[in-house]
Each structure stands twice: as structure tokens, then as C-alpha cells.
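tool_call predict_complex ligand=tetrahydrodeoxyuridine
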Amino acid sequence: MTGLDDLFERAKAARARAHAPYSHFPVGAALRTPGGAIFAGCNVENAAYPLGVCAETAAISAMVAAGETQIAEILVLGPGPGRITPCGACRQRIAEFATPETRVHCADETGAAQSLALSDLLPLAFGPVSLRRDQI
Ligand code: THU
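tool_result ok
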């Protein structure tokens, strides 16, 4: 057992429900809030291709719909056997609810993960604080 087992299992279960008939690239994601709640999501593609939604985005939507707004850590699981990292748009979406130190776990099929700080994936991020014009 590792500390990521629960996130891995939730991401894997969500990935099994991915709707990816066009890319055949199912992805699952699971995030934990500071209070310990877990929210998961999968990618949901569309016949109108640009409308597809990434797994991380779906997990974030589930979190927000439940009234939560902070990501303590997030795990992403691609179709395997290797690891994937979140796409650029999802890095920005994660940043909206995270800190530069937030861990992003990129898991492989065995559950082993490469864990990165969000700031490694999205350095010099534009975020909510950037909109505070008194910060200049
Ligand atoms: N995808 C995700 O769900 N998350 C990522 O981090 C990378 C890509 C999805 C989008 C699309 O449905 C499929 O994987 C192929 O790009």
C-alpha cells in the first residue's frame, strides 16, 4: 500500500468509464482535497472533436459541484503502460484550485507514479493572484 493507492484506484475506475471512441485513449484522474475527499473523472469525447473534455477537467468539475475549491494532490492515469502528464490546458485548470507546491502524480499501470510539483509543469503560471492589479 502506498499513500496513492486510493487515488490510483479511483482514477482507474473512472478511466474504465472513459468515453474515448475517437482517440481510443482512455484517461482517468482523481484528486484529493485538503479535507480528504476524493473526486474522479474520465475523458469524455464528442463527435464534434473539439468539444471533448479531459479527465482532469471532469474531476475538477465534480469537485466544484460538491462545493470544494482546493486540490491537495491529483493523479492522472493514461491507457498505459507508460505515464502521461496533464495537457497544457489542464495544467492551467489545476492551477486555478492549487498552489505551485501541489503534487501532480503521473501514474503508470502498476500504480507507481512520477510525482511533480505543479510549478514544474506550469512555471510562471498566470493565476487568480495575477488578476489583482494592486500586486504589481
Ligand atoms: N486527455 C486527458 O483526458 N487528459 C490528459 O491529460 C491528456 C489527454 C484525453 C483527451 C482526449 O480525449 C484523449 O486523451 C487523447 O488526447
